[in-house]
Design brief:
Layout: H1 6-35, H2 44-57, H3 66-76, E1 79-80, E2 85-86, H4 90-99, H5 116-121
Antiparallel strand pairs: 1-2
Helix pairs in contact: 1-2, 2-3
Length: 123
């Protein structure tokens, strides 16, 4: 029996994975496009997919915390401002949050990596 070379098999597997990922992204984009500007409330998946789509075009979107954006707006009922105006376009609302610097992923701080036991041993 003639088996494919390991590298050849890996390359075929990677191609299949890429095709699957492309198909999933295409379906997500289609779903997001339908629900984005019709005044409907997005799901967390919609927000994450839109953020990924924007990140493909603009790498600064990698620092945007889409989950925080979704949760903050879901709690408030998708309204904004002192008059509690309903959000008409969540994509535009999300872009405004990004421009204003809200929902930035926080870099791990030095205190997150401190070995407490080592500090006590050195005292």
């Amino acid at each position: 029996m003639n088996e494919p070379e390991p590298l050849e098999a890996i390359m075929k597997l990677l191609e299949a994975l890429q095709e699957g990922q492309d198909a999933i992204l295409k379906l997500l984009r289609k779903k997001v496009a339908k629900s984005a500007d019709d005044g409907s409330i997005p799901s967390l998946d919609d927000v994450l997919a839109y953020c990924l789509e924007r990140e493909e075009k603009d790498k600064t979107w990698s620092s945007f915390d889409a989950e925080e954006f979704y949760l903050a707006n879901d709690v408030k009922g998708w309204v904004y401002g002192p008059k509690q105006t309903p959000v008409r376009s969540w994509k535009s609302h999300m872009s405004r949050w990004k421009l204003n610097g809200y929902c930035q992923k926080k870099a791990p701080s030095i205190s997150d990596n401190v070995d407490i036991e080592a500090l006590y041993r050195n005292m």
